[in-house]
Amino acid sequence: MPVHATAAHAQPTSSVAEATAWDDALLRRYDTSGPRYTSYPTALSFHDGFTADDMAQALERSNASQKPLSLYVHVPFCRKICFYCACNKIATKNTSLAEPYLSRLDREMVLTSRHLDTQRPVQQLHWGGGTPTFLTLAQMSDLVDRLDARFGLSNAPDRDYAIEIDPREADVFTLRHLQSLGFNRLSLGVQDLDPQVQAAINRVQPRVLTETLMDEAHRLGFRSLNLDLIYGLPFQTERRFAETLRQVIELGPARLSVFNYAHMPTRFAPQRRIQLADLPSADEKLAMLHTTIEMLTQAGYVHIGMDHFARPDDSLAQAQRNGTLQRNFQGYSSHAECDLIGLGVSAISRVDDIYAQNPTQLAHYEAALDEGRLATIKGLRLNKDDLIRRDVIERFMCDMVIDLDAIGQRWHIDAADYFATAFERLAIAERDGLVQREGLRLSATPIGRLLIRHLAMAFDTHLQRQDGQRYSKIV
Description:
CATH class of the largest domain: Alpha Beta
Mean pLDDT: 92
Helix content: 25-40%
CATH superfamily of the largest domain: tm_1862 like domain
Low-confidence stretches: 1-20
Radius of gyration: 22 Å
Strand content: 15-25%
CATH architecture of the largest domain: Alpha-Beta Horseshoe
Shape: globular
Strand order of the largest sheet: 9-10-8-7-6-5-4-1-13
């Protein structure tokens, strides 16, 4: 597969430029629904004609590349449901229920590793959920031991081993244990520090819980800390969210993810507990986004793109400057060119030229593994056009700049002709000042960075076949 170009990449946008570019009316006009492009084609293009055998063949093909591996492990258990949640999870307080799940995970690892050259280094490891810290310390140790036995984990200083943490379900002993297991990056769910907002989303989490964990993580030398925030939740206002941001800036995380809450109660049952009347208006949400960008950039954070911010010395910002930033199912990643293997219920793999997804229902996941086969239930093998467009969309989403002449040389195509339709689709966005075009080089303007999903959609040939499918709003 072609390597990414490193020549065309964006420099951090200053807070002054972002502020002067702000245009409420323009943002409202472009605030339609669209993919987040954690993959291209997106998961809506996956089909059940793609089988476990296809996944096994892709794993074997991938060995020739000798790319490092990235492992994602989905832990679906939560002790309590947060009402905003759209993740695949199982609510329970009984940690013994995780035991049969860990056994199935191990079976999946064994079946997967049979097709892999396990000398390939595991450069990246990510535990998501659910709440991975739902597991007991002994269960966490067991899972790491199994991963190491099947794939061989790394102790290299540049490894990126991350875990998502609910500060209500972890303490300083948890962090010390995670460090001993090899984790060096933490992502803490905060969402909002306002007590009324926390009560409305069923996530009461005093600041002291987050602050205590962050202090301990710094003492232990964790390389990077990420905090997750969400704007658009019930009872939030621009003023109140600014207070949360002020406190978060005081805490000084290396990275911040500030997500737009997508209210889809017909798809996600917990969201039915949130009253529509309690949600902020579209104008209020825009004001929150504006304040977020203004406050974080003034505090020294680089706006990586969309909902991600990082300190200039963090590996995420460094990767963007180097043109090696990648986008995957966990968002932006500093480790490019890994084959991603997803383990667990609902997990998605990106290996060689395929995507493969496991069942979202636990019973279906268990049944497949109990039959001795990989749990793949659907997926997609990319054709050449998909691979070309994935290259374009990923680089545009990561660098905010795309040199289509370089793309043409890399893929041996006449880029001007190949992307003629995309240029037509981008004409209005160019006229509105979202993108600047110089020959075959496209650069997102400061306001275009906020609408990068819209700009990327110009290159998407699968969208027209997804009529009626629902994506979240772009802003």
